[in-house]
Amino acid sequence: MTLAFGQQMLAIPGPSPAPERVLRAMHRGSPNIYDGELVDMMPDLMDDLRTVARTKHDVALYISNGHGAWEAALSNVFSRGDHVLVLATGRFAQGWREMTEQMGITTDMIDFGTDCPIDPARVVEALNADNGRIKAVLCVHTDTASSVRNDIAALGKAIQSTGHDALFMVDCIASLGCEPFEMDAWGVDVMVTGCQKGLMTPAGMSFVFFGPRAKARAETADCRTGYWNWTPRADPAMFYQRFCGTAPTHHLFGLREALTMLVHEEGVQAAWARHAVLASAVWAAADRWAEGGALRPNVPDRAHRSLAVTTLQLEGYDVEALRQWCETKAGVTLGVGLGLDFTQARGTGLFRIGHMGHLNAHSILGTLACVEAGLKALGIPHGSGGIEAAVTAIAEAVGA
Ligand SMILES: Cc1ncc(COP(=O)(O)O)c(C=O)c1O
């Protein structure tokens, strides 16, 4: 039999579940694109995006996914033949590096593996040994494949301590709105993100935030093309220039509603705190399950785990059978594992629980309980009391 009928739960690390309110805000006829509601709402929408990123600087909007944001950011600051340093803690930093190379920019990569964060001391070493060749340092805040979270504040400080003038460029595609992030205070020059994870909007828009040092580099960047050029997008003379053509009208209405929820109703810091508690519930359950010997969180140290996604390793049992059980018997879709190569996606022994965006206590507890039911149904050894531990984590954090 199956118990999958009813509201399906999407527990993957993006796209995250879109709130009904966001979907309703998008459900309308095509609007006037010359003046009126859509055009008038843009200044506040841009301010709200800056509030989420904790920056006073510029933001450019794109009709694209996260890969588009990667390319947009690169094309605005680099010239062919430039050299950058990539710091990798999983598949997504590798992906950004590949795109960088495809644009004719040379990369050096320091690979920190897939279960621990970037070590700022090694970055300092690399920059101190450099003779002005490295134009930027690229890294990912939360690598969604490994679920390692990097300490961007410490890295920003480390880079500044060297006096090197490399730009600091950070991918917050999986972390913005979920994990604490302070673009200006942490010395980040360029930050890229997408709308479909912490920003709770159906996939299709991305954002590149850039500070004054990056803006100055853009003046001479020869990878810059008319379409990706961030200048008219961030500061348009006419609405039409914001997207170098027709705007993603309905996405903008959806994003407007999502930002109202995140910035004006819940508050960005409260959203970070909610993600921290929900993540702690996932870890409490996972750490108990790990006592059975077959299953364990990919990142051993809680201090280095993402608040938005948890990658789990299953040894000696079929991870796809567990994902299929959760999907077809319980109505919960879990994330596939991603190896270093996307073609390995289903052969890694990994799966992921997404806990980002529009989620609350009952959605996380429901997901965890269904995973535990799947472990039981399939005879996969696991420590008992995972759900009890998750419930306790939530009860203790929330209190009376
Ligand atoms: C950290 C990170 N960077 C980049 C991407 C690529 O984004 P997209 O799939 O929207 O192109 C993702 C997608 O999951 C991601 O999690």
TrEMBL record:
Q: Which PANTHER family match?
A: ALANINE--GLYOXYLATE AMINOTRANSFERASE, AMINOTRANSFERASE CLASS V
UniProt GO MF annotations: alanine-glyoxylate transaminase activity; L-serine-pyruvate transaminase activity
Among the Pfam families in the record, one is Aminotran_5
- Tell me the leader sequence span: none
- The UniProt record lists the Aminotransferase class V domain at 54-337
**Post-translational modification N6-(pyridoxal phosphate)lysine, affected residues:** 197
Single GO BP term: glycine biosynthetic process, by transamination of glyoxylate
- Give the domain of life: Bacteria
Give the protein name, as stated in the record.
Alanine-glyoxylate transaminase / serine-glyoxylate transaminase / serine-pyruvate transaminase
Cross-referenced SUPFAM superfamilies: PLP-dependent transferases
Statement: the UniProt record of this protein carries the keyword Glycosyltransferase: no
